[in-house]
Amino acid sequence: MTETVKTTPSKFPHIEWIDLHQDGIMHECAILKKDVNGNIYFFEVGPLDNIDKQRLFNIITNRNADKYELWDMMSQVTLGNGMNALAYFHQLVKIITAGGKVTSPRSGEIGAPMGQVDTRDVAAK
Fold first, then answer.
1. Which residues, at least 6 apart from 7, have a Cβ–Cβ distance to it below 8 Å?
2. pLDDT tens digits for the chain (125 residues)?
3. Taking the domains of the chain in order of start, what are their residue ranges?
4. The pTM is what?
5. Residue 53 CB-density burial (10 A; 0-12 exposed, 13-18 middle, 19+ buried)
6. Which residues contact 101 (CB under 8 A, 6 or more apart)?
7. Residue 102 in 3-state DSSP?
């Protein structure tokens, strides 16, 4: 039996509720990117302090927020502290694979799609 990660959209672009631990408890997350293998690049919103929540809110309520991935939008934003938003928030980013495994992004690893994997397709992307 193949399980997939449960997600529920919120009223804001790029914010979804994810069952991170497959225990029926949904966590509010900022979704930076979803790749072709079903991996979701995210960070949890709950642990952020009020300043960082406001920074994120300002980005996701931008008039173009629904046109671009959050990853792309953050790369174009300079925060009030002078840092690039993507560089600032990237330290919090995790990946949840299509199979529900939460991992940190690192070189040499990629979440494979559920089912058979053709490594030629993975390497080409």
1. 16, 17, 18, 19, 40
2. 345 788 999 999 999 999 999 899 999 999 999 988 889 999 999 999 999 999 999 999 999 899 999 999 999 999 999 999 999 999 999 999 888 899 888 756 666 665 555 555 555 55
3. 7-124
4. 0.81
5. middle
6. 111
7. strand
